[in-house]
Design brief:
Layout (H helix, E strand, L loop, with lengths): L3 E2 L11 E5 L4 H6 L10 H9 L5 H10 L2 E5 L1 E4 L15 E2 L2 H7 L5 E5 L1 H10 L10 E5 L11 H12 L2
Parallel strand pairs: 2-3, 2-6, 6-7
Antiparallel strand pairs: 1-4, 4-5
């Protein structure tokens, strides 16, 4: 099976918050857009918090205007389907956070979209001391697969974490 390939970071050099997912799902890869699944709560949460809507290009631009960068922990991995539980760790390759953080020196917060992103960062990246001086926070996943928390519950936690 071919590995799923992630996207380049969506960012400007003056980003202060880096939001990390695990690896784009099948619909996102097909659309070549972060959080393309229609039931993913990421873009609705960004709309509630920052008034971000419009076309995908407009949404990315508005994220950047709010000093938010978007990326994934993994650059690639074999993953049959879209569930994070199907990521095959032996094939996983992390993104280059050393270079990213060297060129995005204003990053103050790394926010993980879901437990799996946080776990993958700890396993494949953070052991290298990347982001050691940067605050890290786990957030409830915006994936429709994470149904244990309501949209309003997710929104509250995201609001408290990334607008504080």
């Amino acid at each position: 099976m071919q590995p799923s390939e992630g996207f380049p970071p969506a960012s400007k050099a003056d980003a202060r918050i880096l939001i990390l997912g695990s690896l784009p799902g099948q619909q996102s890869i097909a659309a070549q857009q972060y959080y393309a699944h229609p039931r993913n709560a990421f873009w609705p949460i960004m709309n509630e918090l920052f008034g971000i809507d419009g076309s995908y290009t407009q949404r990315l631009s508005r994220l950047a205007d709010n000093h938010i960068a978007l990326w994934d922990v993994l650059a690639s991995s074999v993953r049959p389907g879209s569930l994070d539980s199907q990521i095959q760790h032996e094939s996983a390759r992390a993104n280059d956070f050393h270079t990213f953080l060297a060129t995005h020196t204003d990053i103050q917060l790394i926010a993980f979209n879901g437990k799996k992103a946080e776990q993958l960062f700890g396993r494949f990246v953070d052991g290298d001391g990347v982001g050691a001086e940067i605050r890290q926070a786990g957030l409830p996943s915006t994936s429709p697969a994470y149904a244990a928390m309501s949209f309003s519950g997710k929104l509250d936690v995201w609001r408290q974490t990334i607008t504080a």
